[in-house]
Amino acid sequence: MSLRGIASFWSQPHGLRAWLATHDHKRIGMLYLGTVLAFLLLGGVFALVLRLSLVSPDNALVDAHSYDELFTHHGIVMVWLFMIPSIPSALGNFLVPLMIGARDVAFPRINLASYWVFVLGAIVVLAALIAGGVDTGWTFYAPYSTTTRTATTLAAVGVFVTGVSSILTGLNFIATIHTMRVKGMRWRDLPLFVWAIYGTSIILVLATPVLGLALLLVGADHAWGLGLFDPATGGDPVLFEHLFWFYSHPAVYIMILPAMGVVSEVVATFSHRRPSWYGAIVAATIGIALVGFLTWGHHMFVAGMSTFDVGMFGALSMLVAIFSAIKVFTWTATMYGGSITIATPILYVFTFIFLFVFGGMSGVAVATSSLDVHWHDTYFVVAHFHFIMVGGTMTGFLAALHYWFPKITGKMYSEAWAKLACAAVSVGFVLTFTPQFLLGNAGMPRRYATYPPQYQALHIVSTVGACLLALGMLVTLGYLVVAVARGRAAGPNPWRSRSFEWRSPSPPPPHNFDDPPVWTDGPYDYDERGAA
Amino acid sequence: MRDSPSGSSLVLTFLALLVLVGVSWGAAALGAGTGVALAIAAVKAGLIALVFMELYRADAVDRIIAAVAVLFVVLLCAGALADVALR
Amino acid sequence: MNDDRRYRIAVWIVIASEALLFAGLFALYASYRSEHAAAFEAGVRADIQWIGGVNTLLLLASSFAIAWAIHQVRGGRPRAATWSLAAVIALGLGFLGLKLFEWSEHIADGIVPGIAYAGPDRGPGTSLFFTLYYGMTGLHAVHVVAGLLLVAWVLVRVRRGRIDRERHLALELVALYWHFVDAIWVFLWPMFYLMHG
Lengths: 532, 87, 197
Hints:
Chain B has about 90 residues and is mostly helical. Helices cover about 75% and strands about 0% of the residues of chain B. Chain B has one domain. The model of chain B has no long low-confidence stretch (mean pLDDT about 95). Chain C is mostly helical. In chain C, α1 (about 1-35) packs parallel to α6 (about 170-195) and α2 (about 35-45) crosses α6. The interface between B and C is large, with 48 and 49 residues.
């Protein structure tokens, strides 16, 4: 395959319309990428203001109502406008067809539609944040969400619309992976990232409609008094929680499975080794996707559920941890005995594994209902899910950005700056969120604007960490942008990976492959001594 | 793939559904409980899915999607009901 | 063949998603019925029985009609298929017409969804029942409308010869959606008309 004189997907076809109305999965991935990065920035700004305001116990910076709005907006933007779409829609769209030897996804026009529906939903959400704000927390619990005089209905509609985009994305990936694999590629030849996207897509199409209904009902109650969760008519607010968490627990697996897929790819490439126990990782991926639906009640241990449900959901929650553990062991086993190249992507993977293990163990801790009674609605839970979502997903996202940057742009970034930023992000993260475990265990509740003075020291450490984390992220954005403009040429396969997406030029041409590729080997065909 | 449904199998399925409508109505008149009513409904839905929607001859993928969807609907109902009913 | 498969998988996924959309309402019905059994049973008795029964027959007949239309198309008899599809639309419109009539009767009695409920029966759970009634039959009716538009679309294509013995995937997929809508009603009928305890 000739590497010169091939127009890249960036320049062909020309023009703004060709970008905004594109059917090219790579361009749609880039549209998503730019958009979700903007929302990451927005959500991060909310977080920074929150942390700065918490430096003093009496919160001189923001009043209580504004504080409620800040953590709500932070949650809504981060969860639905960044975390859910980030790896699947931005990177999955770019990579999946390349990884299976296809020219595009199964339904390119639906792919484009999914992007614009997402933008529409995001605009409605932003409108809600501006026109009155939302103060219910990202969880929209009734009865507060149905009675508070803020823009709850508008926000619910906005999130509902982004949910439609999610379903379209998941549908497209499932159809693509089933029907567009290059001839001869069996399921057991699929790269692990593709398996991860497949598992994620199952959750996207099955869980999101339940959220859609829950938000519909809350919005209708808030706007027109539908009253399905109103105790005055015999309604039960806990039933809202059942509907909400039936989606929102699997949703966290939408957030982590793609990141785990990234980790699998980076581990294989940088160890120059076939993943140990490929079948186990696949089984664990599908296991997480399905078993993740059985555990939602662990968010409701103290909500007033029956003891039966408390016990059942607690036990089932332990089950999911087994699959995650299997993955950590297989990644470790793959690296052990491999010939590891140290570069930024694998450094982020080390960070991921380290932080994910702690995050996961703290998950098992809060899944123990008798212990959760103490930790529920404290900073302990906040620390747990940020360890997974930032320490896990965010780190996976950064690993992905650094790993596939040369594939997407054809350029390479400054490794020195990248390592520096990785250090800042990792140390910043640990400083931000480790104190929060201690805060929560010591009784500091979440979503409180003010607090007794004895918690101040830990809050200050956490805020310092947040500033360092933010700095690391901004520096990352900086050198990546510089590299797009002035980075040196990377060549088609700088990491000497055997995976299929590295067999096209960097950046790929619009149609990916001139002829359907013939791959007689697998995506992890490293020889025993670890050379490519 | 097996043969598409014959005209007579379509007619027979429809007649079976009509009979089941009668059974539903009769059971309700006799005061049968919610379990019976829903069970008869499930049989009707099963006939619609298997014969009319041709699941009896569909790809494994389509069948799995249908089965998982039904399972998860039941799962949500069971989880919520096990809370409310057993408090 | 691959084209067929990807569209078929896509439609089954859409149906699965739609099933999960209704799932929350089924869960609410089950939970609230267990908490307010008497009110729910009374609510079921208050619904207009003959409409529930006739509507069920109309939808089941329409499912048969659309399956029959596919059978005709596969047999190379597009005219018969067109008539069958027309029957689906007529039956579906009949369903909607009866539904609207039923709702207007309820509204006249003050039975409206939500906290504005002003119907004859009171007490905890009663308005919940009727809110769920409007919510579920309403959401279902929206899907009936969508289904009818799709059926009209394939009817036109059959008439124009764009759907024939060799290529009729669109008809099969629209039929899948229509059968799903029918299957949902198969559960709504006992839930709101028959299970009066």
